[in-house]
Design goal:
There is one protein chain. This protein is mostly beta strands and 119 residues long. It has one domain (3-113): Thrombin, subunit H. The chain is built from 1 helix and 8 strands. It has one helix spanning 3-14; strands spanning 16-22, 25-35, 42-44, 47-49, 58-63, 75-79, 82-94, 97-107. The protein starts with a helix and ends in a 12-residue tail after the last strand.
């Protein structure tokens, strides 16, 4: 079994349902969403979060690559009734295959313009 099919199987079997709103379009998908708890230095938008610090503001999203999205005001993820805005996102690839979408999300009401990832 390839890594792509293994991850797809795991998402179908174990991941949570999510609603993705992107540019006025709504789709439904599966994703793993967990509080982002990092004990070493983590950089979000070039701001260092002190070692050992976590407050559960940010969540980690690992989702289906057939439902891609990008950061910004036009993308929202809803999981278990909580709406999130995308701070940053990337495609995780193995070779040319996109295996999953990786993102950091923040509760919608807490998002500020300077929280967005910049190129």
């Amino acid at each position: 079994m390839s890594i792509k099919s293994t991850i797809r199987y795991a998402m179908e079997k174990y991941a949570s349902s999510v609603k993705i709103e992107k540019d006025g379009q709504t789709t439904y998908s599966k994703a793993f969403i967990q509080p982002l708890r990092r004990r070493h230095r983590l950089y979000i938008n070039d701001k260092i979060i002190p070692s050992g610090y976590f407050d559960n503001q940010y969540v980690l999203y690992i989702g289906d690559p057939t439902h891609p999205f990008e950061r910004g005001m036009n993308t929202f993820i809803t999981h278990e009734g909580q709406k999130y805005t995308v701070v940053t996102s990337e495609q995780f690839k193995v070779g040319k295959d996109i295996i999953y979408i990786w993102a950091i999300l923040l509760e919608y009401q807490k998002m500020r313009e300077d929280d967005y990832d910049t190129d």
